[in-house]
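Protein Record: Sequence and Backbone Structure Tokens
======================================================
Tokens: labelled as protein backbone structure tokens, with as many entries as the chain has residues.
Question of interest: how does this chain fold, as expressed in backbone structure tokens?

___
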Amino acid sequence: MVFIVAEIGVNWDGKFEIAKNMMENAKSSGCDAVKFQSFDEEIIKNHPQKSRLIKSSISKNNIETINQLAKEIGIEWFSTPMTVEAVTLLDPYVKRFKIRELDGRELLDNKITKLVEDVLKTEKPIMISSNTNPKNSKFCDHLQIQWLYCVPKYPCSVDDIDFDKIRSSQYFDGYSNHCPEIIAPISAVDAGAQIIEVHITDDKSKDYFDNNVSFGYTDLSELIKLIRSKHTTNN
């Protein structure tokens, strides 16, 4: 069965009531997990809304509440660490990690950063986004790593996406979506993706940071129904 991740990311705006609503809707829609992001002030130092953005990072100030909400709702949560400190913070709470496309590029050149090295040391599964087929990397068939094809453009169009990269590669396990049209993740499943990650939002009319690449709850529910029906039909 396709593993579906609802990327809450920074769209919860640091507000627990929004995070709770997003988790509940992800759960009721049929998602398998929700994902957040973990970064520090240095990473976002040049962002014009850095004081607002930092509130959405999973930190020692909010991790217990996020973990408790997920337990109460009954959905798995994990996060994308962008610092080595975040790996240490997250490790006791999560079953898996996600590495963003930018932080996975070194692996394509057979190099490794301290961040990825520390995540690998946890011995937990790691999803890594990549626009490039990892076939020439020594990490291409690493047992911990699940490679997700993505287009690092926010947003991207359907025409930007080369689904043949999923279809023709034995190394891409899934697809991380930045396209606002649900045909994109549907097409990824058709191409053989077994993991789908999509951004979601609590309100498309608000100015949440990733709203331009995010699905509302109605689209999310429709997307998951289509994916699950395809799995049932194919089996």
Notes: The chain has a mean pLDDT of 96. Residues 3-234 form a domain with the TIM Barrel fold (CATH 3.20.20.70).
